[in-house]
Amino acid sequence: MSQFWKPGTERPQGRVVDDEEGGVLFLSGSHHSSSSSRYGYASIDKQRQRLPVFKYRTAILYLVETRATTIIVGETGSGKTTQIPQYLKEAGWAAGGRLIACTQPRRLAVQAVASRVAEEMGVKLGEEVGYTIRFEDVTKPDVTVLKFLTDGVLLREMMDDPLLTKYRNCELDVKVPGRAFEHELEKLRHVIMLDEAHERSISTDILLGLLKKIQRRRPELRLIISSATIEAKSMSDFFRMRKKRREPENEEHGLQVEPVILSVEGRGFNVQINYSEEPVQDYVQAAVSTVLLIHEREPAGDVLVFLTGQDDIDASVQLLNDEVQTTGKHSSGLIVLPLYSGLSRAEQELVFSQAPRGKRKVIISTNIAETSLTLEGIVYVVDSGFSKQRFYNPISDIENLVVAPISRASARQRAGRAGRVRPGKCYRLYTEEYFLNHMSNEGIPEIQRSSMVSCVIQLKALGIDNILGFDWPASPSTEAMIRALEILYSLRVLDDDAKLTSPTGFQVAEIPLDPMVSKMIIASSQLGCSEEIITIAAVLSVQSIWISGRGIQKESDEAKLRFAAAEGDHVTFLNVYKGFHQSGKSSQWCHKNYVNYHAMRKVLEVREQLKRIAKRIGLVLKSCESDMQVVRKAVTAGFFANACHLEEYSHNGMYKTLRGSQEVYIHPSSVLFRVNPKWVIYNSLVSTDRQYMRNVITIDPSCLLEAAPHFYQLQQSNHLLR
DNA sequence: GAGCACTGC
Q: For residues A604, A538, A154 and A160, what is the CA-based torsion angle, rounded to 10 degrees?
């Protein structure tokens, strides 16, 4: 297949930010493409001063002093993440026991940034500079002043302290002042920095809404929002808009509420964009021929290809390897590596190793390389223009993974991956016309593509009662909201007035899991099987505890049968956990039984956290030993809405959901596959050509009525008792 | 007899 390319006109790293309405705007100077190693060894201070953000130190501090909200647009390598928190500390924003908080969407980034900053400041991590992520609090009371954390953790912290008035490293009694003395106010002058806000995770969006709300009560709270170029304007609009009435500006303290955008250049290199001249029919095939073209015509440098999922990636790795084999010398020198989250740790690490001299590394990856992982040495990027995205249908209450076109923002992000070490090239497997006229500017925020049950619970726990009226950066659909309220009501987590019930609702909000799982845990406390149910909840919260992969299917299926329980997958998990525990948590035992050791370690961690929380909220930790009847009852108490009945005359194992009469099937990975018991409850649905139930347990229909009479009242006569 | 983009508490 021949490939025609048309050089594009887009500059992936353009940095002019529009600011019409009177906001201060700093434009960057000339674009430097320097690397720090050019100067050889330099002291940390010198290195810090060489970062692009250093030029803006005074400007940033001035803006944070005078503006409620500052939006920083910082390209890759600008140094904003590591430097700005230090500038704030140096300027006295952490004096008097106050904490400067800086959030990241991902745990790994939190750890990396915190340790880098601690190193630059010459302090031990966990002292002045600390971090908090799930399972790990590396901060020290009275000592830590710079705290890095995931946005999820900050959200959890706000449940105990909704106005963040206690955001300090030691106890201090401060009242929220209506009109307070200067020195009282001083204690409340906090800065919170939300980094990578453009990624628009659910937690970031909730935080943005909450912090905007808090600012009205606490004008002395300062926000720094870091964002990519394209999204900066909408972020600024969000903070500019006063929701109902126009609120008076806080002129008294010389503070302006209008947000301002400050743009800092990065250290990326220019990336030449090439578009396909014709629309591409088959992007796997097109990606393969483009890689071969690059290898044939372009100078040395590694290639990164963005495809959508495991299937596409494995197929193209195969095609490229075949090509290398058949054409021999011409195409040799290629090392082709797949990259997706489902790979084992060892396989993932291969992509970070350097290619031997004279060899070219080709990494074929999912979206994981767009945000989560940074690969060094990439000079060429091939962008299919697609990724797998999650969509939620509130009518059927089902989440689907769909291959969908990416946004222009994503396309720029992908292209930028080619310019980290030297000028690079990006090959887009779509036309320039398509890019300009058919791609959306920004992706759909996660909050508009997800179920809202967890989100509603969190907001309720934060004291936000009018959720439909909440000031979102992007509003979730009314249908999704109503569906969430309905589910939470049926779980008896919300009452008739949509308030959290006591104690169930408040307990569910404390548990960091899906409300149906939390409800199951609470029920298990009353039924006397919380030890078992907490283990099951922990296993359900990791991706999979089985080792899967090509060539070992038969063996791993057989291994699974050794643990299989007649009741279904949940009880099977208990058998695996028991065996793992009895082996002394041995990795050899896992290996022998085709159980994923890393997943089991995570199960242990989650289990410990859940036990701690259970104790705190007053649940009884107790084992039911071998009475699996109560285990099934507890599962039913949380998941009654997922009950299904086998169609009597079905020969292919078709079930129908009680709630919506949806056609569903037991997933082949379940121990109940082909067993087809009459009544089952599933944990989740995956939809491909059919709807498959994953993690299934048999139930007794009378338990359904017992667990949720309110829910099954109507169906009672015509379904359950037939 | 099928297949799971990626985070997070």
A: -100
A9 pLDDT tier (thresholds 50, 70, 90): low
How many Å does it take to go from CA A542 to C1' B6?
14
Please choose, from the candidates A695, A1, A513, the residue with its C-alpha nearest in 3D space to the C-alpha of residue A293: A1
A481 CA vs B8 C1’ separation (Å): 21
3-class secondary-structure state, position A576:
helix
For residues A696 and A669, the answer to whether their CB atoms sit within 8 Å is no
Helix axes A80-90, A57-66, angle to 10 degrees: 60
| CA nearest to nucleotide B5 C1': residue | A388
What's the pLDDT band for A175 if we cut at 50, 70, 90? low
Rounded CA-CA distance A522/A620 in Å is 9
Report whether A642 contacts A699 (CB < 8 A). no
* Domains of chain A, each with CATH number or no CATH: 56-264 (3.40.50.300), 271-446 (3.40.50.300), 634-720 (no CATH)
Instruction: Say if residues A249 and A214 touch (Cβ distance below 8 Å).
Output: no
Q: Give the full edge-to-edge strand order of the sheet including A25-26.
A: A25-26, A260-264, A69-74, A222-227, A191-194, A100-104, A146-150, A129-133, A136-138
Residue A442 DSSP SS3: coil
CB A486 within 8 A of CB A517: no
Which H or E run includes A137? strand A136-138
3-class SS letters over A138-164: ECCCCCCCEEEEEHHHHHHHHHHCCCC
Structure confidence by residue, pLDDT tens digits, A223-266: 999 987 777 888 888 988 664 444 554 444 567 778 889 998 88
**Which nucleotides in chain B have some atom under 7 angstroms from a protein Cβ?**
1-9
Positions 327-356 in A, CB within 7 angstroms of strand B: 340-342
Q: How far apart are CA A430 and CA A72, in angstroms?
A: 31
Mean pLDDT estimate for chain A? 84
Q: b/e string for A327-361 if b means 16 or more Cβ within 10 A?
A: eeeebeebbbbbbbeebeeeebeebeeebeeeebb
- DSSP characters over A4-18: -EEE----TT-----
Q: How far apart are CA A379 and CA A265, in angstroms?
A: 20
* Cα dist from A158 to A118, A134, A191, A211, A613, whole Å: 25, 15, 15, 10, 17
Whole-number Å distance between alpha carbons of A137 and A153:
10
In this prediction, residues A286-296 reach a mean pLDDT of: 92
Q: Which residue is nearest to nucleotide B7 (CA to C1')?
A: A106
Q: Which helix (DSSP H) or strand (DSSP E) does residue A450 occupy?
A: none
When pLDDT is averaged across residues A291-307 and rounded to a whole number, the result is 93
Whether A138 contacts A153, CB under 8 Å: no
CA-to-CA distance for A678 and A399, rounded, in angstroms?
A: 25
pLDDT of residue A38: 44
Beta strand A643-646 pairing with A655-657: antiparallel
What the block records as the tokens of A533 is 């149910």
How deeply is A579 buried, as exposed, middle or buried, from its count of CB atoms within 10 A (0-12, 13-18, 19+)? Answer: middle
CA pair distance A698, A686, nearest whole angstrom: 19
User: Structure tokens of A641?
Assistant: 């809405």
